[in-house]
Amino acid sequence: MTNATEGPAFRYTAGLANEIEQKWQRYWVDNGTFNAPNPVGDLATGEVLPEDKLNVQDMFPYPSGAGLHVGHPLGYIATDVYARYNRMLGKNVLHTLGYDSFGLPAEQYAIQTGTHPRTTTEANIANMTRQLDALGLGHDRRRSVATTDPEFYRWTQWIFLQIYNAWFDEEQQKARPIEDLVRDLMTGARTCKDGREFLSLTTEEKHKAIDEFRLVYLSDSMVNWCPGLGTVLANEEVTADGRSERGNYPVFRKRLRQWMMRITAYSDRLLEDLELLDWPEKVKSMQRNWIGRSRGAQVAFASPEGPIEVFTTRPDTLFGASYMVLAPEHELVDALTADAYEGGVDKRWTFGENSPAEAVAAYRQAIAAKSDVERQENKDKTGVFLGTYATNPVSGEQVPVFIADYVLTGYGTGAIMAVPAHDERDHEFASTFGLPILPVLEGGDVTEEAFTGDGAHINSANDDGLDLNGLGKGEAIEKAIAWLQDKGVGEEKIQYKLRDWLFARQRYWGEPFPIVYDENGQAHSLPEEMLPVELPQIEDYNPVSFDPDDADSEPAPPLAKATDWVEVELDLGHGKQKYRRDTNVMPQWAGSSWYQLRYIDPTNSEEFCNIENERYWTGPRGENDPGGVDLYVGGVEHAVLHLLYSRFWHKVLYDLGFVTSREPYRRLYNQGYIQAYAYTDARGVYVPAAEVEEKDGRFFYNGEEVNQEYGKMGKSLKNAVAPDDIARDFGADTLRVYEMAMGPLDTSRPWATKDVVGSHRFLQRLWRLVVDEETGEVLARNTELTEDDAKQLHRTIAGVREDYGHLRDNTVVAKLIEYVNYLTKTYPNEVPRAAVEPLVQMVSPLAPHIAEELWSKLGHPGTITFEPFPTFDEALLVDDTVEIPVQINGKVRARVRVAADASREDMEAAALSDGRIAELIEGKNVVKVIAVPGRMVNLVVK
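The chain above was modelled as a monomer; its predicted structure follows.
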């Protein structure tokens, strides 16, 4: 019986694959196949859980309205393969996927259409879930969460309050509850940060004194203000040319009162604990560089308005400091700005204005739209002289004080001592403004460019006991720091590039802050029973937007329009009073900073995560084990911010006793990307890649030649391929096998739909080993394996186990193809059951649907999911014989098979008795025989 269009009735076609896949996906859901039991709570089943467990997790995806293309599931399939393999090893496996569903795209869609962001988000989640389910991912669906669920963000708000109501004890190097601080302040065991006694303060002053210690605090900070979007942006949301990544609007640096998180308190622990993590060294290096710990000195330059503090890693070069530069936003700029320029000030120093105040105002306006990156990388140095001088503490020289955009208020102290002879940016500035360039290190001609190497010190001595001349770098630094400390004008200091975390956005679609303000503007945290603070329904999602170029505009978040929600009357322990809610929302990073913990206990309404469940799934397994998720897979683009923020939140929770693990992610793996070719016409417009034809190495669309480019896959490039289409045309198992076979998981690779058929044919050959395409009869028979069969099988098992365990799924596919080809060639009719059943088990993690179906046809009830993975016999991995090349005068002329442990004499005898060799050396004299056991024989003949 055959089908005219699809061949034999029982052939493994796309249609049959789709039927099988839907059948087994329903089975898994109906039977809760992938539901992982917890030790405590409503997920527990009562049985004793295996001590051997695996917590494997993918990075939180955003549910885009565009849906998935075939590049998105690469990591999801890989973690599913790994999870399925480990289930077959007997482990209790937690694997699920949720959605990082707050974010600006849904809000902007709401602004454009009037559709509530929740409506859009839930529709996107439903579509993405459908697409992922069709791939046969073995997720515990009960554990899936979305950051936009009020029950989820209730706990996000709760964690925020734990951080808000905590402070960092420098002595203990850990977070402690704010109540401990208040007790110490009340008893006099600790003083306020400004040195005052706590009990001497007014009630309002006490509030402010406590707030100065909190891990979450309000600060007048420099932020990226985007009037065109009506919101503050994080640094990563601003392009290098100072515009918004979304919308391409100008972004201005502006000082605003914002919520900050004191992540800098954890700088040392964030650095030191990197050594405990099984992460790619590249990612660790990126985190170290972002934190940027450096040792140096804090130095005070005397000025008419008091000391100007600078941090330098090279205090040994102080004698070469010929001017100072402050960030234009530095708090001392206005005070230091003189009333007028005195004497013959170079016009280049005045920014074309008549007074220092006018020059400062004009300069600040001119640079307002520049990003931090643009300011630091700009080769054309600009600045303004403040009309004021400061005193170099080592030389006593008066040095002019400037402001310039290449100095940033967020780095160091926001002020630098400029040593133009030995710093490239200082040299460029000094050259532009005609300032002195004083070499203090031997080597190089500093008239043309800065000398940034090391050399003996010169011109570096004073009459007050400091002489660095002739010293090398290390010794000079130590001596300079000691002198500064002795004179009271400096001290040794460790400095960090890491800045505190700006934790507020002027948007609607985000987590509301669980904070209210009283009539005096004092912030108060809400009690736990008032959580969650849910987003109100509003009609207009627009922030108050402004002229994109209006740098003087002020943010007015969308939530400010919900006056009935903003103005509330609450009893926070002192009777009912009027309060005002915070109208900012948390950044999208909030939910993704802790979601791995909610996966553990998603239905717990009493706590964010039961600590015994956390101990089981992410607790440490030894003295130097930090704990955390066993395997975390995602793109390297999250190497710094997401991972740094998650680590910070997790460490606070650890300090406060809510978790047993010191780190959120024990092992990190960065997968590569599936990329694709895109094509543009003569206008530079993208054309559908699927409709482009190749002719003689050139590419044509509708008869017109187009240009080929290679890179990311996406809807805008018209080269996206939907997984739905591949699953429909070939089956989801084929898609899974193809994506895993394309190359090593940690490298990027090009998508080629025409190559998918190769993976489909592999599964067809696998199917034919078990099922007769004409009759549907099972072909496996209870016959004995030959010696060659056993060796092929056990070598395949050994290799596949090794590769699955190390995420080398591409080589798993290669080994399985080789074994299928061996069985197909050896057994064209009926295959031994003992040869094919282990094969189906080995295929199961990669192609679970076809494996389930074949396992069932082979007579096994239930699911293959928990069947023990095949093991191998070491003895069968060793060859009894080996094939070795036989050379004549260095050229291979034949190959012979000898015993694996054959002696040189036996190898020589085998070579000489080979018919081909005997024919070639007939009539010649063999003058020497070189035999290397197990490797080769070379005959030297004349």
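The first strand starts at residue 2 and ends at 3.
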